[in-house]
Design a protein that fits this description.
The complex is a heterodimer. Chain A contains 17 helices and 21 strands. By secondary structure, chain A is of the alpha/beta class. Chain A folds into three domains: 19-106 and 172-250, Rossmann fold, CATH 3.40.50.300; 269-348 and 436-453 and 466-517, 3-Layer(aba) Sandwich (Rossmann fold); 356-434, no CATH class. In chain A, the strands form four sheets. In chain A, strands 7-8-9-4-10-11 form a six-stranded mixed β-sheet, sandwiched between helices. A six-stranded mixed β-sheet of chain A has the order 17-18-19-14-20-21, with helices on both faces. In chain A, strands 1, 2, 3, 5 and 6 form a five-stranded antiparallel β-sheet that branches. Chain A is globular and about 70 Å long. By secondary structure, chain B is mainly α. Chain B has a domain at 89-314. The radius of gyration of chain B is 23 Å and the shape is globular. The chains are: A alpha/beta, B mainly alpha. At the A-B interface, helix 10, helix 13, helix 14 and helix 15 of A face helix 8, helix 9 and helix 15 of B.
């Protein structure tokens, strides 16, 4: 193994290559992340890789891309076995990857981003020549992106396309797309995937796409491989497998939590949360968030749809008292609400922010401490407590852990050691215990696996049915359509559209999300 | 079968299995801090040895002297303990805010102002009240002024977004200038000719030593402050709220915790301990407030707090160790002809290495409690 002879010819741009793994196994200590996985992605195919969180999808693609070195097994590119020691090696074979989150430099233009991403950039760049070359290159691309504008001004869909173009510009002919549509509107996602599909059909590209969304998989890809707990549990052509089959393979024989049937919202349901004419600066301080009127009544779920970065974060911050407002007020149960601990406690307001580990937990504190955030300063009789009761804390934690099936090595492990689903379960356990009048939830299922998603949604629906007013902010339109009674669209800091969820038109919602109103 | 990390629906709750598991787990968690701390000190000493070799002296002799000077005899142990006393208090000035996620490095300012306030408070009371009552007033004055001083840094941090590290450091310079202003101006004892000082405390009003030892009462005060701080942080709901705010300020805000009050309050408590260190210097060591108050205790306290990982109880042994290193400075100077600053070089080297070694936490699997959970 001292001298690896590279017998595979260097890739030619514009000619797709196939990739195959054979018995790929990856162990981390005693943990087997990938167990004897063999998948074949022939040249010019659009292959989907499905699996729950932690099923081994990322491990597999990281082995292919040279980030990890597989414990055993081999990798073939274009039918020849190759050893890929690093991502750089992968690049020389024409393998590239597009990540879930953007890797472009926001302050530079598209053209600048492309040129500086090359492995060898001349010390002095001849921009006139580069622009000419780029124009010629873009002629051959199906994507239409303005390359002369700073990336920060591009829409999410354009950025994602630029990420793909960057890989093609770098001469990659096999692309791994890691959940490429998670930040796009439905229309943007369809357009982008359609163009990628076209390239595979023309034989210019091979794609392996990690996805959670069945409708994308069935609409755009040729074949699918499904991983569960590190093993390949199924593979087949689209059309031969139904989405039910795929879902069953992904989750195994775990029974998903079912949503309670939706109780009708009574006509006279009292408003719990009212936001009246609130104005506040946004994160950049340059734009204003203006919420004219937002009311959530007892026993209903109001969904807020919108593309990330249109004021959702600011709205939750205003409600959580983290962002001072210029005018207007937030009213809960008929009284002005400033999100202090006593107001929150008196009105039974609960927050479940997105990315709970970063926003609702102290990562280094233990699970039982994190579970006590809401109650540590209360005595059993409801009076303020000065002394902590470690015993009561542990006991309560044990009860919550078993009620909400939080999987943790022990209640004294740091909460950061838990998987995403279990952190979310722990936060739900903390926030959904006891009476809840108002629940404010933001992207509760982001990054969670199937069964955790089903469980989280079931818990929220249950709270709704028992009379909780729920404000659900989500970037996942399917989730909003499934969960909400009413949907409002937020765009550029304003609520621009409202519809009843029943019979809502996704196209209209999408158009408002994209700013056409 | 390998149990996968996010296997849904299963619950492995605590408490199952043998008794040895929690013990091993507990041990693994604590051993990491001790082991990494010790390794950091060893690396620091090794680097310092290089420095000593370069200037042509023997590190072995130096370390022997350091031991003799710090802990070699009852005399030197008492000397080390005396020097540890102010460090206990100034380290708390760093450690308490650190639990809230703040890096306060200007404890020196609270020390000098605390000393001046204590001396000023003592003047009108001399001869009117018994010494014990006088010490209470001196201590209160020092704690109030120290608390205001460092509390200001916390307040500015939360309400005006001013970086607390910079502001506390700059406040320390202002404090030293203020001390000079007072000591050379309104509070100056006309009898202090060469070294401007406040009027010295009469001998019967000095704090004196712990019975049976040649160590002043400041040591007991410091140790008590450490124990009280530990209780505050670990056993009260205020401490818990502060730890939430330090662990994740967004999580604390979402729970409606008064983050601003917590930050201001805990920095004020921290500052009051540093102020108390100034009072101890005046009442037990100097007898008056003068420029010797700015002896660097505030800065050495930073080193102590970081080495103790901001655990108030761990501060006690670490302060004694650092006090020992400090105490050996004179001996090294006399026997080896090395400048006084040699000890500072050692302290600086240790500090850099300790900060560097902070990055090793969580990197070694042997300290992973879950490892012991699984294999036990």
């Amino acid at each position: 193994m001292s001298n690896i002879v590279r017998d595979t010819p260097l890739p030619q741009t514009g000619k797709a290559i196939g990739v195959e793994t054979l018995g790929m196994t990856m162990r981390f200590g005693s943990f087997t992340a990938l167990d004897n996985v063999s998948i074949s992605v022939p040249a010019c195919s659009f292959h989907a890789l499905l699996g729950e969180n932690g099923a081994g999808k990322s491990t597999l693609v990281k082995c292919i891309m040279g980030f990890y070195h597989a414990t055993s097994g081999s990798l073939s590119v274009d039918g020849r076995e190759v050893a890929i020691a690093s991502p750089k090696d992968a690049a020389t074979y024409g393998l590239g990857m597009v990540y879930q989150h953007f890797t472009l430099v926001p302050s530079l233009t598209g053209a600048e981003n492309l040129v500086i991403s090359r492995p060898e950039v001349p010390a002095v760049i001849n921009w006139a020549k580069e622009r000419k070359d780029l124009a010629a290159f873009m002629e051959r691309m199906p994507f239409n992106i303005p390359l002369d504008r700073p990336v920060s001004e591009l829409a999410a869909g354009e950025k994602q396309k630029l990420e793909i173009v960057k890989q093609l510009y770098l001469g990659r002919s096999f692309l791994v797309l890691d959940e490429p549509t998670s930040v796009l509107t439905p229309a943007e996602a369809d357009e982008m995937l359609g163009l990628v599909r076209g390239m595979t059909e023309r034989g210019e590209l091979t794609v392996l796409m990690i996805s959670h969304k069945f409708h994308e998989v069935t609409k755009f890809t040729d074949a699918v491989s499904i991983l569960r707990r590190g093993r390949l549990v199924g593979t087949g052509k689209i059309g031969e497998l139904s989405t039910t089959d795929m879902a069953a393979m992904m989750i195994g024989d775990v029974r998903l939590a079912e949503l309670d049937s939706r109780l009708p919202v009574p006509e006279a349901a009292r408003p719990v949360l009212t936001v009246e004419k609130v104005k506040a600066p946004d994160r950049s301080g340059l734009k204003t968030i203006e919420i004219e009127d937002l009311t959530v009544r007892s026993g209903e779920i109001v969904g807020i749809a919108g593309i990330s970065g249109n004021g959702q974060k600011e709205l939750t911050e205003i409600l959580a008292g983290q962002r001072p407002t210029d005018t207007g007020r937030v009213v809960v149960n008929g009284e002005t609400y400033g999100a202090t601990r006593s107001e929150t406690r008196k009105n039974n307001v609960r927050f479940i922010p997105e990315e709970p580990l970063q926003n609702a937990c102290a990562p280094k504190m233990t699970v039982s401490e994190n579970l006590a955030f809401r109650t540590f300063d209360l005595k059993p009789n409801g009076k303020d407590a000065i002394w902590l009761s470690r015993g009561a804390m542990k006991k309560r934690a044990a009860a919550l852990i078993s009620d909400f099936k939080v999987k943790t090595a022990s209640s004294s492990s740091p909460i950061a050691a838990l998987s995403g689903g279990n952190v979310q379960r722990a936060v739900l356990a903390r926030e959904l215990t006891g009476d809840v009048d108002l629940l404010i939830v933001s992207n509760p299922c982001f990054g969670l696996d199937f069964s955790a998603v089903a469980e989280v949604r079931a818990r929220i629906m249950k709270a709704r049915n028992s009379g909780t007013a729920v404000l659900l902010l989500s970037e996942d339109l399917d989730e909003l359509l499934e969960m909400s009674d009413r949907i409002m669209v937020i765009s550029e800091g304003k609520l621009v559209y409202e519809t009843s969820a029943l019979g809502a038109d996704v196209g209209v919602i999408g158009a408002h999300m994209a700013g056409h109103h | 079968m390998t149990v996968q990390a996010n296997d849904p629906g299963l619950s492995i709750s605590a408490g199952s299995g043998t008794r040895i598991r929690p013990l091993l787990e507990w041990f693994a968690r604590r051993a990491e801090a001790v082991a990494i701390g010790l390794v950091a000190i060893l690396i620091g000493l090794a680097l310092f040895s290089l420095f000593i070799l370069v200037i042509g002296k023997s590190p072995v002799t130096l370390f022997q002297l350091m031991y003799t000077g710090g802990f070699g005899s009852w005399f030197s142990v008492q000397n080390s303990l005396s020097r540890a006393a102010p460090l206990l208090l100034t380290a708390l000035c760093v450690a308490l805010p650190a639990r809230l996620g703040l890096v306060i490095i200007g404890g020196e300012g609270a020390v000098v102002l605390g000393g001046v306030a204590a001396a000023a408070a003592a003047m009108p009371l001399l001869g009117l009240v018994p010494p014990a009552v006088l010490f209470v007033f001196m201590g209160l004055a020092a704690m109030v002024i120290g608390g205001l001083w460092i509390g200001l840094a916390g307040f500015l941090r939360h309400y005006r977004g001013v970086n607390e590290t910079i502001s506390s450091l700059l406040l320390a310079y202002i404090a030293i200038a203020l001390m000079n202003q007072f000591v050379e101006g309104p509070l100056r004892d006309p009898a202090s000719l060469n070294k401007p000082s406040t009027r010295p405390l009469p001998a019967e009003y000095m704090m004196g030593d712990i019975p049976g030892m040649d160590v002043h009462w400041g040591l007991i005060i410091g140790i008590l402050a450490c124990i009280l701080s530990w209780i505050l942080m670990e056993a009260t709901s205020y401490g818990f709220a502060a730890r939430i705010a330090g662990g994740n300020v967004r999580a604390a805000q979402i729970q409606g915790l008064p983050v601003g009050k917590l930050i201001t309050g805990f920095t004020a408590i921290a500052g009051s301990f540093a102020g108390l260190a100034g009072m101890v210097e005046v009442a037990a060591v100097q007898g008056s407030a003068n420029a010797s108050l700015a002896a660097g205790y505030g800065y050495t306290g930073i080193l102590v707090a970081f080495l103790a990982r901001h655990n108030p109880l761990a501060i006690i042994p670490v302060a004694i160790l650092l006090g020992g290193i400090d105490a050996s400075g004179g001996l090294i100077q006399r026997r080896m002809g090395l400048p006084d600053a040699t000890v500072l070089v050692l302290q600086g080297t240790l500090f850099i290495v300790i900060l560097f070694c902070e990055t090793f936490y969580g990197r070694f699997r042997i300290f992973d409690p879950d490892l012991w959970k699984r294999s036990a």
